[in-house]
Write a structure and sequence with these properties.
18 helices, Growth Hormone, Chain: A, single chain
């Protein structure tokens, strides 16, 4: 299969439907492998660091290592993602897609066998590299396979909307992993107890990659790229060209706003699983029961009963974390679909973006300052669920926006490089660094002399970061140029 039927105003052909389905699975898996980490990270690091997350020192150690892994993997993903964008323009969209899928499928599964935080960090860096490269190649590939403007907008909008299904799958995988832990046969078990949950969660990342690995290599290459390559008209992309007068403003502003979007996601939304346990009433009971357990003789009935109670409370807390994450992912899914519909109805790309930015600026900081911090008392957890759904709606939709906007800015030979610079330098390298800022602020707020708990301090820090990045993003949107036309630049 080497060519694609022409796009028209009629129905999609079977080949085009297959392309859309595979692209949707790819975007979902990209999100899946990233969002599984906030769920599995705390229990994974608690085991690998041998610390108790219920203590302040143990909690802050986990937060510190979480931000370290996120920042390191983002830098690696940004650097190699930028290289991947260049290779996408030089070697072709489909070839780079295939290799990126293999990289993140292998590394996602391998991370389940980590025996140290350093080993987990290395494999998460590899996973991030695969995801960063895949996103850029996939967007360029889809944009060029569907040259008709309306159809292209619809395909890019709705296939990217399925990225939030990856978050739902991650939440479901985590719930399933918690249920499986301790109940698996010996040959499929790591330790045979509840600590296996995070390993099953990471290992499950291999499953969605299977159809992508089997089918994507047989799908057609981008006709626009292939024709220019065959005719010898494909110019060599150069990074410096992104800063020529024709592209400079779009490159700088889109990179800045991309960074703000990722800053809100990683500096606020992705730390929610570490905040939620502080809002669970039973969180303080586990350390007390563990201390009592140390005084009992292993194997006695009382010891077994107490240990069963601890496992039950831990499992309950993990399930609550998964429930809150589910609200966030449902909000993100609704936001992506809303953007896909609005992209067809609103001509201005800048106002399409502001529809999600301005409500986010007003609502998201309040969610963290009041509900996530526990200042609303017994209602805090319930209100956080709805608040984080709105946060997901406003923030995650912006990621789909760039898939519609950037292909209309850069020509064929520079498209992958331009998309990669905004997504990887802005979003991955700088935007994800917001989680480190959140962790630093949380450490300052919860100093040894402070009576503020770790989760509460983290909520205040996340709210401050969300307020900052949303304010910068809204201001920067006034300098974002409108694409010159609906057609893709040649």
């Amino acid at each position: 299969m080497t060519s694609l039927p022409a796009s028209g105003s009629g129905r999609l052909t079977p080949i085009q439907w297959l392309i859309c389905i595979i692209a949707a699975i790819g975007f979902a898996f990209d999100t899946y492998v990233l969002l599984i980490m906030p769920l599995v990270g705390p229990p994974a690091l608690a085991e690998l660091l041998k610390v108790d997350p219920a203590t302040k020192d143990g909690y802050l150690a986990i937060v510190s290592w979480s931000s370290r892994i996120t920042w390191a993997s983002a830098v690696c993903g940004g650097v190699f993602g930028l290289l991947g964008g260049y290779l996408t323009d030089r070697l072709g969209r489909r070839r780079v897609l295939t290799w990126s899928i293999l990289i993140y499928a292998f590394s996602s599964a391998a991370s389940a066998f980590s025996t140290s935080p350093e080993m987990l960090l290395v494999f998460r860096c590899m996973t991030f590299i695969g995801v960063c490269v895949e996103f850029v190649a996939a967007v360029a590939w889809l944009a060029e396979l569907f040259p008709d403007p309306k159809r292209r907008e619809a395909v890019l909008g709705f296939t990217q909307a399925f990225g939030s299904c990856g978050g739902l799958l991650a939440t479901a995988a985590w719930k399933g992993s918690v249920a499986l832990a301790g109940n698996m046969p010996e040959w499929a078990s790591f330790h045979g107890d509840q600590t296996d949950a995070w390993r099953y969660g990471l290992l499950s990342g291999l499953i969605p990659a299977i159809p992508l690995i089997l089918i994507r290599p047989f799908l057609p290459e981008s006709p626009a790229w292939k024709e220019k390559k065959a005719a010898g008209k494909l110019r060599r992309p150069r990074l410096g060209e992104l800063f020529q007068p024709a592209y400079r403003r779009a490159t700088i502003v889109s990179t800045l706003i991309f960074a703000c979007g990722f800053g809100a996601a990683f500096g606020a939304l992705q730390v929610v699983p570490q905040i939620v346990p502080g809002l669970v009433k039973s969180v303080g009971e586990v350390p007390k029961l563990q201390a009592r357990l140390q005084t009992l003789k292993p194997g006695t009935p009382e010891y077994k009963t107490l240990k069963s109670q601890i496992i039950g409370l831990t499992k309950e807390r993990q399930q609550i974390v998964g429930n809150v994450q589910l609200y966030q992912e449902l909000g993100g899914l609704a936001g992506r679909f809303a953007l896909a519909w609005l992209a067809l109805a609103i001509a201005s790309r800048v106002w399409l973006l502001r529809i999600f930015q301005i409500p986010g600026l007003l609502i998201i900081p309040a969610v963290f300052f009041f509900a996530a911090s526990g200042r609303l008392g017994d209602n805090s957890l319930d209100l956080l669920k709805w608040g984080i759904a709105i946060a997901g709606f406003c923030t995650i939709a912006q990621f789909s926006f760039w898939g519609n906007y950037l292909p209309r800015v850069y020509p064929t030979y520079l498209r992958g490089t331009g998309e990669s610079f905004a997504a990887n330098v802005g979003g991955r390298m700088f935007g994800t660094g917001a989680q480190s800022i959140t962790a630093l602020l949380a450490a300052l707020i919860t100093t040894p002399g402070s009576n503020i708990s770790g989760p509460t301090g983290l909520a205040y820090a996340a709210g401050a970061v969300a307020l900052l990045v949303y304010a910068v993003g809204v201001i920067a949107s006034f300098w974002l140029p409108e694409p010159p036309s609906e057609a893709l630049p040649e």
